[in-house]
């Protein structure tokens, strides 16, 4: 029996740095013994099956180590099961994110966000942008009505502010990744 997982790599193929070709990512994941490995886009989204139900945090550490050995630089990875990804899509607190998918994001956290970090933030500082932490604290949803380009909220969605490793995807990518995981 296998479980399907989604691996989300952070900070690759941006501005010519930390190049991770998707064909090589597939090779790394296949080399770890994962099956049915597929990638989405060039920004480090992969779906794979692994035997039995394995802890996503351990899988992330395994993938991080293999990527560091293959490419020679560290790559942070967040892993979710297909079921966790489905639950994250269903839990989006904003109305109709599909209507403006580029203005809605999900930040996937490697662990629970530090509540003290978030409680210390005044959401009014980021208006008109909005964010909401999901129940369980492992996904942070954001809405950027004017886009992310000049947003003061977008830089907030990282490890230094949230207290855990984090990687963000727009709504379109999240839903496409879910479709790939369920296919």
TrEMBL record:
InterPro entries according to UniProt: DUF1697 (IPR012545)
Pfam families, per the entry: DUF1697
Gene3D superfamilies: SP0830-like domains
Transmembrane regions listed in the UniProt entry: none
Domain of life: Bacteria
The protein's name: DUF1697 domain-containing protein
Species of the source: Streptomyces xinghaiensis
Source taxonomy: Bacteria, Bacillati, Actinomycetota, Actinomycetes, Kitasatosporales
């Amino acid at each position: 029996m296998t479980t399907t997982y989604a691996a989300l790599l952070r900070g690759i193929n941006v501005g010519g740095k930390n190049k991770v070709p998707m064909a090589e990512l597939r090779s790394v994941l296949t080399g770890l013994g994962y099956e049915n490995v597929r990638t989405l886009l060039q920004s480090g989204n992969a779906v794979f099956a692994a035997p039995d139900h394995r802890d996503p945090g351990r899988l992330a550490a395994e993938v991080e180590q293999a990527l560091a050995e293959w490419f020679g630089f560290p790559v942070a990875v967040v892993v979710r099961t297909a079921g966790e990804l489905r639950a994250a899509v269903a839990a989006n607190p904003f109305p109709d994110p599909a209507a403006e998918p580029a203005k809605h994001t999900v930040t996937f956290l490697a662990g629970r966000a530090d509540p003290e970090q978030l409680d210390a933030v005044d959401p009014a500082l980021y208006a008109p942008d909005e964010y909401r932490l999901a129940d369980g604290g492992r996904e942070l949803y954001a809405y950027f009505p004017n886009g992310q380009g000049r947003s003061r909220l977008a830089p907030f969605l990282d490890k230094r502010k949230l207290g855990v490793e984090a990687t963000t995807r727009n709504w379109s990518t999240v839903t496409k990744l879910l479709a790939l995981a369920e296919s």
